[in-house]
Amino acid sequence: MLDVRKLRLLRELSYRETIAAVAEALAYTPSAVSQQLAALEREAGVPLLTRTGRRVSLTPAALALVQHTERVLAVLEQATAELATTRDELTGTLRIGAFPTAVRTILSPALVALSTAHPRLELRVTELDPALAPDALRAEVLDVALIQEYDYVPVPVDPALHSEPLFEEIVHLAARAAEPLSAHRESPWIASTPGTLCHTMTVRACEAAGFTPRIRHHADDFGTVLALVAADQGVALVPEFGTRECPAGVTLAPLPMRRRTHLAYRRGTGDHPVVRAARSALRESAGRAPGG
Description:
Blueprint: H1 4-16, H2 19-26, H3 30-44, E1 49-52, E2 55-58, H4 60-84, E3 92-98, H5 100-117, E4 121-127, H6 133-138, E5 144-150, E6 161-175, E7 188-191, H7 197-208, E8 214-218, H8 222-230, E9 236-239, E10 251-266, H9 273-288
Parallel strand pairs: 3-4, 3-5, 7-8
Antiparallel strand pairs: 1-2, 5-10, 6-9, 6-10
Helix pairs in contact: 1-2, 1-3, 1-4, 2-3, 5-9
C-alpha cells in the first residue's frame, strides 16, 4: 500500500520542482524529503525521479501517480468534510488568504459576519499576493483564498484546487491627464514587485499596446501607486478596488481590461461546514461591495 504522506511529497515536488522548496513548504528537512521519496520509489517498484546533478524531474510513472494522488487527496478531504457535518457547532480554525484591497473591501465585512454567526470559530487571515495562494492552499497553510486573473494573465488550471467566480473589476489607467494607453510609450511607469500578477499584467498590457513599459517605481499598495501618480512620477494600471481613495490630480481612464477574483479551496473541502460558511460570507460581502 502506498503511503499517502509520501504521495503528497511527490505531488508537491511536481509543483515546486525542487526538493528544497518542498521541504520549506511542508516543514521538512531536504534530507527527510529525499528519504521519503526514495522510500516511495521502493514501495512503487518503479523509478519515480530522474536526477541530473542537483536537479530532479519526475518520470512518466511519477506523473501518472501524481494524477492519482490528486484524486486520493480530494476523496480524503471530502471524507473529513462529511465527518465535520455531524457536529452541532462550527469550531476549529479557518485560515483565509487574500490580497490587500480584498482584505479591506471584501474580507473585513465577511469576518464580522463569520465571527457573529460562529463565535467559537477561530479566524486567521494572511495577506499575500494571489500568485502565492495556490501553493499555500495545497500545503494546507490556508483553507480558503482569493486568487486572481487578468485578461492578459490567465490562471492555469490547478487539479488540486476548486475555484468559483467571486467578482470582477475594471482596470483603469491612472495618469495626470486622460490619454489612451498607447500615448504612454515613453512615460515612466509604476508597477508592482516583479513576479506578482499585477506586475505581469502591466507589462503584458503595454506589450499588447505595442511597447514595453519603462518601469521606474515598484509599489504593491495601490494607495502608494496613486500617490506616486499624483506626484507626477509616472502612470500605472490600477483595478477598480484600488481606486477607492484616488488623490486629487489623478485621472482614471477605464480600459477594456478586467481583473477577475475567484474563491479557491482544495478539492473535496467545498462542503466542509467551515469552508462552506466562509464561501457564503465572502459571496455575500462581495455582492454588497460597490463595484463588486
